[in-house]
Amino acid sequence: MHEMSLALEVCDIAQRHVSPDQVASIVEIVIEVGDDAGVVADSLEFWLESMLSSPPFKAAKPVIRRVSGDVLRVSYLEVDDGRPDD
Amino acid sequence: MAVRTIEVRERVMAKNDELAAAVRRALAEHHVPALNLVSGPGSGKTTLLERTLERLGPEMRIAVVTGDVQTQNDADRLARHTDRLVQAVVTGGACHLDARQVGSALEAIDLSDTDLLFIENVGNLVCPASWDLGEAAKVVLFSVTEGEDKPAKYPKMFRESRYCVLTKVDLLPYVPFDLALAEETAREVNPGLTFFRTSSRSGEGLEEWFDFLRAQVKASRPA
Q1: In a domain, B7, yes or no
Q2: Are the beta carbons of A75 and B6 separated by less than 8 Å?
Q3: Cis peptide before A62 (omega within 30 of 0)
Q4: pLDDT tens digits, chain B, 223 residues: what are they?
Q5: Are B20 and B139 in contact, with CB atoms under 8 Å apart?
Q6: Which chain B residues contact residue A78 at CB under 8 A?
Q7: Do B130 and A14 touch (CB under 8 A)?
Q8: Which pLDDT value is given to residue A59?
Q9: What CATH code is carried by the domain that includes residue B95?
Q10: Partner-chain contact B9 A17, CB within 8 Å
Q11: Is the CB of B10 less than 8 angstroms away from the CB of A13?
C-alpha cells in the first residue's frame, strides 16, 4: 500500500540526477527491490508506470530487478542523449 | 538513439532516514525515549495508551503523536486522559507515518518538558514496518482475536519490532488462541522479541508494561 509514496520518491531521486531539461529524456529507471524489502514489486511498477508517463517525464519505463535482502534503491538511469546511434 | 547510463545507487528511503536521524538526534538531546506503536487496526493501541496515560501521567511527562488515515478520533480519546498536548497527524490516505510528519509534529511539543514520547502509528501491519520515524524502538501490538499466525503472515513488522504486546488476553476463554504458540511463531521471525501479555480492560499484565516504561525513562536520563 505504501508503494505509491515509494514511487514518488523514486521519481524525485531520478529528477535529482539529471538536469531539468533531461527529465523528459529518461528512458529507463532501474530499481533494485529486495525480497525482504516489504515492497510489492508489481504495485511499485504499476505506480511508476503511471507517474513516468506524465510530465515532467515523457516515456520512461521502470525496470525492477529482484534481489536478495532488504535492498530498495534506484540503481541507474538510462537517458537518451539526443545523438544518433553510433 | 544513443543512450547514456547515469549511475545512481541511492536508497529510496534515504530522505526519510535522514529526517528520522534528525528526529532521533533531537530526542537524544532531550533524553526522551520514543516508542513507535504499530499493529493492525483494532489491536488496542489507543486503549493501551489511555490506560498508560491514566496510570503514568501523574508521575511522568508523556507526549503522544497519533497517526490516522482520517479523523483525529484517537487523539481526541487520548486528550481526555492527559492535560498535555496530543498531536494528531492525519495522513490523508497514506497507510503509515513518515519521519517528516513526526518531525513536524514534534515542533509543537516541548521536548525539554517531556519524559517519554509515544508515536501511535496508522493501524496497518505492513507499511509502517518500512518507515523509520526516529524512534528508540517499535512496539508491535498483537491481539488474541487475530490468530497465532500473524507473525508468519506479516514477518517484517515483527522483525522490525523489539517488543511485542499481546493484548485483550481477558478474551482468551472465548477465543481459540494459543498464547504460547503465538509467541513461538513470533520468535521464529524475531528471536529477540520481548513479550508483554496484557488486557487493558481487566488490567492484567499492565503493571509489567508500566514498569518497563519507567525503566525506559530512567535509562534515558543523564547520569
Answers
A1: no
A2: no
A3: no
A4: 789 999 999 999 999 999 999 999 999 999 999 999 999 999 999 999 999 999 999 999 999 999 988 898 999 999 999 988 898 988 888 889 999 999 999 999 999 999 999 999 999 998 899 899 999 999 999 999 999 999 999 999 999 999 999 999 999 999 999 999 999 999 999 999 999 999 999 999 999 999 999 999 999 998 7
A5: no
A6: 3-6
A7: no
A8: 85
A9: 3.40.50.300
A10: no
A11: yes
> Closest partner residue to A78 among B5, B9, B10, by Cβ?
B5
Q: Please tell me which residue of chain A has the smallest CA distance to B3.
A: A80
- Identify the CATH number of the domain in which residue A35 sits: 3.30.2320.50
**Domain extent at residue A43:** 3-79
pLDDT at residue A49 above 70? yes
- B127 and A2 in contact by Cβ < 8 A? yes
Is the CB of B127 less than 8 angstroms away from the CB of A76? no
Domain membership flag for residue B168: yes
Selecting from B2, B10, B126 the residue whose C-beta is nearest the C-beta of A81 gives B2
User: Phi, psi at residue A47, to the nearest 5°?
Assistant: -65, -40
Structural domain contains residue A72: yes
Residue A79 is nearest to which of B3, B9, B129, comparing CB atoms?
A: B3
Q: Is B116 left (phi over 0), alpha (psi -120 to 50) or beta?
A: beta
> Distance of alpha carbon A75 from its chain centroid, rounded?
9
Is A74 a member of any domain? yes
Domain that holds residue B117: 14-24+33-218
> Which residues from chain B sit within 8 angstroms of residue A18, using beta carbons?
6
* Count of structural domains, chain B: 1
Q: Is B8 within a domain?
A: no
Domain count, chain A: 1
Q: What is the DSSP letter of B190?
A: -
Residue A1 pLDDT: 64
Angstroms from B60 CA to nearest CA on chain A: 35
Supply B184's cell numbers: 513461538
Contacts of A76 in chain B (CB under 8 A): 5-9
Residues in contact with B53: Cβ distance below 8 Å, sequence separation at least 6, in sequence order: B62, B64, B78, B81, B82
Q: What is the DSSP letter of B162?
A: S
